[in-house]
User: Fold this.
Amino acid sequence: MTHSLLQLRSWLFFLCLFFVFQANATHFRAGEITARRISDTSPTYEIKLTAYFDVSQRGKPAADAANNILFYFGSATSTSARVSQSVARNSVRDIGLNTTVNEYITTYTFPGTGNYQISVTMDNRNENTLNLNKGINTDQLNFYVHTTILVNSSLGRNQTPTLLNPPIDLAAVGQRYVHNPNAYDADGDSLSYKIYVPQEEGRPGFGINIPYEDPNLIGAPGQTEAGATPATFSIDPISGDLVWDAPASPGQYNVAFLIEEWRDGFMIGRIVRDMQIIVEDARNDRPVINPLDDICVEAGTRISQPVTATDKNGDRLTLTSTGGVYDPTLVKPANATFTVPQQGTLGQVAGTFTWQTGCDHVRLEPYSVLFKVEDAAASGNAALFRKLVDMTTLNIRVFGPKPTNLTAVATTDPAGIAYRLNWNTYQCQIPGARIAIYRSEGCKEIPEDVCISGIPAGSGYERIGQVAINQTTYLDNQTGLKAGVSYSYRIVVEFPRPGANINEPGYLVGGGESIASEMACLEVPTIMPVITHVTVDQTSQTAGEITVRWTRPMSRAGVPAQYKLMRATGQTGTNFTTIATISTNLDPAVADTLFVDKLLNTTDNAYRYQLEYSTTQAGSLAIVDVTEPASSVRLEQGAAIPTSIRLNWSALVPWNNNGTVHRIYREDKDNPGTFNRIDDITTQGGQPFTYIDDGIDKFPADGTINVTISKETSYCYKVETLGSYNDRQIKPDTLLNFSQIICLTASDTTRPCPPVLVIDPLDCAELNKTPEIFCNQNSFTNNLSWTYPQECDQNLNAYRVYYARYEGDTPALVGTVTAPPIPLSTSFAHNGLTSFAGCYYVTAVNSFGVESAPSNIVCKDNCPMYVLPNVFTPNGDNKNDIFKPFDCPAFVQSVECKIFNRWGTQVYETKDVNINWDGKTNAGKELAAGQYYYEVSVTFESATRNPKPTIIKGWVQIVK
Assistant:
């Protein structure tokens, strides 16, 4: 054998040994991939793999040899082969605990918009990982992680979250272990967390799940650090705290979790962190760091937060902190600092977190700052002592400061009623920020809390407009402003996302809001009269009396004017006739805003009143206003109950009687004509209001008079409503009005009880999966069912069903359910409808032919079914050439569609219900392939007569 042949064999032998060593080296512990877009004009991203290597024993040569990594890029929704790219190591550094962190950084330009996956595979994982592959030959498993991103120009220079806390801490048997990745999203997007199964590469660029067990299930059943059973392993979906409370068996474990990135309700990215947890029988107790409450501040506030940690073993403690707030590349200065005057103190350590917040720090999502304490042997054999840690997170919300000095004054305007708002120049002049204006009828307070930004939902304020951040005034001259109504205003500043391009669509999403300004209450003079009282003074079929009061309009005293009071029979009556004409000089000293209406049948009827107001103009009287009508309070018997009396009452008035206290009176049998107040109730929900008298007097202030309700005894009642206009200029503030008096017994069957009605609901989410279900259907059915109270008189002959096409319309009889069979059916199918929309109530009819009061009103609406595609191909092949809704749009009344290009310029609009866009402008010019944005205003057929349109926004790709 020649010398050269021997050399060749030797070289091959050592080469084989090298590859065998490489293939079986145990070195990879943890890692994740992050990405950030670095170009405004192309979908070019900087991609980084952060890899954690085990450099103990034979893992170090393998870690040192990991000079290059193979990255894979491809569609997240396709199984097509992926593009690979070899990337050299950028840096390596030792971070302790026999671990180095290697970074591999590259750039990649994606072919277009869409969801893409970036993945990396490394050989090999550590051996003897107990919860992977049943702990067998885990060093033969490779390490695979991936990250998914949405590439779309509308997201601007988006970047994935950065994970600032390395996963290298040790866990101890029987002690709570916690890891938090300290994920920071520089764009202000919201993050959520989920447990994930560790993976290995199946084929190049694609991962498959490794046989995996929850680490909490390895070995004997454990218990928590506090002694509860069983032990737990979970991740907090909001904070990202990965908690194992507590490991039972020492050894090596691998776990993984997802970090999901969300913007405006849409997921735009996912990162997988695969990490290793090493559990030891530590001769040590973990230190404890005191938890910290979340902080809310206005921008400009200086935060100074003490942080302390203790160790019951008296060990040396090191207290550190990580977070985006320290990094000027992630958060604009001023940046936070964390100082610990005496690191390494025994048993206890303290530090101070300091941050001077500013305007650039305002955002919707909180800033998370991680604090970690680590112990070390104070004395003795440190070789037998393993360091343990504890950590906690401080969440800081930075809101925009409150706008100041908001005022509102009435002003003249050609449009009619108008109010001018002014405020101080806002202190945070952030480009792209804007000021939103809100208005409410009445002077409404909102909660005062530094952790409540903007206008809370349900506060009664409606957004009416917006101006640029540098503006200090706004004119409210919108249609619908009413004379004689007080208005209050507040303003809120809305901020762009941190680092957002203000030319991007949706740049304000994630930016957050300021604290709402103080209220500017504009108490508009009550120029016109309003009715304030319709109270029953006398109950009689022939001599009943009702007192009507109203406010005096604001006008110059001495000017001849006239009130004309009109009356209609019934709470909803429209047959108004004039019952009094009162001339007035509007003199406050004259009692001309009151009228006592006499000789009425208040026993059987309610009455409704309206006031016509006229003033002298050009020498003669002219009508200038007609008030809203107001009815008397009508008290009626409710359900017949053997041992109680149920009362129902209602009043159709322009002021508010709901959510207020109403007073219940019962006649004192020992003093006929004297009524004893037996209870006060706070009304809730709609009318009629209701009360059940069980005989107990629950209002002792005027004497306690209890009775035993008997079927043989008649009881007389009246109620007093307490209402308000919520306008401080209308006096009195509280409007008191009595009902008529009614007398009845517990067995009184004068009127049956109203049934309780329900309607079959539509599962819109399920129906939207098959929108074609209504394509060829032109007749619809609503199925009604009801129950009749068991405690009521069951002697019924029929049920009557009433229907109105729109809310607020007077329902008409559409069906009667009669006997036989006995018992009566309690369901009804309303057939032959053109849609599901409409409102119903049901009444019960007893054997005397007396009909009950209406049941509760139930309304049903159609499902808004209008689904649009996100791609079409207008290339003339008669396949997918038109942008239109899927299947057939159901229950659509009208459509307004606008199409915009990526720069926000409108290129097309139509009112065609089916849109039918052919990829051209309205002028017929063919548009280029690419992404376009649509805003479609769809008005669906509804139970509401004038329904608000549904706004659908999205994007569509033209592919040619």
Observations:
- The domain at 288-399 is CATH 2.60.40.10 (Immunoglobulin-like).
- The chain has a mean pLDDT of 87.
- DSSP finds three helices and 61 strands in the chain.
- Helices lie at 3-24, 59-65, 764-767.
